[in-house]
Amino acid sequence: MSEDNKKHVNFDDDVDDDLSSNEEEPEDNESELIAEQNRVLQQQKEPVKKAKLADQDLKTLNVNELTPLSPQVISRQATINIGTIGHVAHGKSTVVKSISGVRTIRFKTEMVRNITIKLGYANAKIYHNPNPTCSRPQSYTSRGSGHADSFPCDIPGCEGNYELVRHVSFVDCPGHDILMATMLNGAAVMDAALLLIAGNESCPQPQTSEHLAAVEIMKLKHIIILQNKIDLVREQEAITQHGEIKRFIEGTVAHDAPIIPISAQLKYNIDVVCEYITKKIPIPVRDFTSSPRLIVIRSFDVNKPGEQVEELKGGVAGGSILQGVLRVGQEIEVRPGIVSKNADGTIKCKPIFSKVVTLLAEENELQYAVPGGLIGVGTKIDPTLTRADRLVGQVLGEVGHLPKIYIELEISYFLLRRLLGVRDLENKGKIQKLTKSEMLMVNIGSTSAGARIVAVKADLAKVVLTSPVCTQVGEKLALSRRVDKHWRLIGWGQIRKGKELAVEE
Ligand SMILES: Nc1nc2c(ncn2[C@@H]2O[C@H](COP(=O)(O)OP(=O)(O)OP(=O)(O)O)[C@@H](O)[C@H]2O)c(=O)[nH]1
Ligand SMILES: [Mg+2]
Ligand SMILES: [Zn+2]
């Protein structure tokens, strides 16, 4: 894969400047991802008294009968994606930890600085005890993804069992203002969002507004507001801030969102959050019957350095399924695949063909995977092609059924009136028109690419991408511009047509 293409996956290049040294970051990721993957593989070898989960059988699978609530599916994988959004340090990762038990802060630089840098993923099972002796909100609770689907309620005076009602996947976004590109990639897969607002700061803070605008652009409608850190404020301050939040959400997509006071740290009202997730977030409408398609969000080589050739495992891709059902044993194609340049400088690509060897949702093994959450796909692809996130932004799916690969796009677009995510704007806040030959960043699905504007006319623009993207007409995209060294959201658009890239057979 060419250097150019490797670069396009890392649009948080700002992170390298500001949050970690250039030398450390790639090393850091690779070794820690390997450590994480090895830990998962190790645990598969020596299962630690795993709960009995529902069986999946490819022989009896009928995709027409599957729903995002089918017991054999939600026993093992998440089927609803919930983003956590909001200003830096307002408690996004802490609330994910309180609900799922999973700490999404994993990387060395993240731990040192106590901030989220990469998208975090964590699955949680949400349970409800329908027995009348068990009253709300305690009748709702949550556990990790590998927990049994039913267990007795142990609250004194209660009868009956907690039954699995939802299996959700949290997409934990970074709140730091320079990581907006990462947040936008996450926003593309969200079905709903938890908007965290710290109770001990005035509302809104810059990324409170910018993130809300971003999910609005992505047409996301289901938002639950969590007024967090309630343990740090007096009742009267909390009530005053509640009014501030109400005024802030007026006229936005979140205008009628519930506002729940919580302490993510002390786990206060987390059961109410579970109840609202169950009652207020509709089950997403999914397409299980079309040919399967997964957007790659991470990829790695799980082999230890110096591994014997016969022991080598194929490349692993982690991603989100957009449509269809992916099965163990299935023949797959990855697009654009291997990207390179011809002698004359034009870009070409060669799709990769392989086979699904294993499917994993966190630590749960799957026979088939449906849309929702992050799915790990073990393949027979040469692991050097998947190491260090090299396949990020590519699409994996049924051979011969993937969308086209574009290098030039014609889009219709809208610009925001003002920049939302910066504090001291003075007169820099007004968003200027697009100009010919300027370089923007586009986020299409979970991938980002540089986009050089070659023509603008009213609300139409033609852009040349820095790296090819596998996508389709009608797909929406977010537009960002570099302002004071950082990418800021300026608007959004939709693909109207494009110039395809030649594919090598
Ligand atoms: N007192 C109190 N502190 C909290 C609460 N929730 C989170 N914190 C603290 O606030 C800090 C930030 O929490 P995080 O969960 O990392 O915040 P975040 O929104 O994920 O931060 P970024 O991802 O970097 O934007 C941590 O030190 C938490 O311990 C809470 O309910 N009460
Ligand atoms: Mg965080
Ligand atoms: Zn109970």
Automatic annotation (TrEMBL):
EC numbers: 3.6.5.3
Record region (Disordered): 1-33
GO biological process: formation of translation preinitiation complex
Composition-biased stretches (Acidic residues): 12-33
Family affiliation: Belongs to the TRAFAC class translation factor GTPase superfamily. Classic translation factor GTPase family. EF-Tu/EF-1A subfamily.
MF-aspect GO terms: GTP binding; GTPase activity; translation initiation factor activity; tRNA binding
Phylogenetic lineage: Eukaryota, Discoba, Heterolobosea, Tetramitia, Eutetramitia
InterPro entries per record: EFTu-like_2, eIF2G, eIF2g_C, eIF2g_dom_2, eIF2g_GTP-bd, P-loop_NTPase, T_Tr_GTP-bd_dom, Transl_B-barrel_sf
Gene source species: Acrasis kona
SUPFAM superfamilies: EF-Tu/eEF-1alpha/eIF2-gamma C-terminal domain (SSF50465), P-loop containing nucleoside triphosphate hydrolases (SSF52540), Translation proteins (SSF50447)
Domain of life of the native organism: Eukaryota
Protein name: protein-synthesizing GTPase
Swiss-Prot/TrEMBL catalytic activity: GTP + H2O = GDP + phosphate + H(+)
Top-level EC class as recorded in UniProt: hydrolase
Keywords tagged on the record: GTP-binding, Hydrolase, Initiation factor, Nucleotide-binding, Protein biosynthesis
Record's keyword annotation contains Magnesium: no
Sequence ranges of Basic and acidic residues compositional bias: 1-11
A cellular component annotation (GO) from this entry: eukaryotic translation initiation factor 2 complex
Classification via Pfam families: eIF2_C, GTP_EFTU, GTP_EFTU_D2
All copies of domain Tr-type G, residue ranges: 77-285
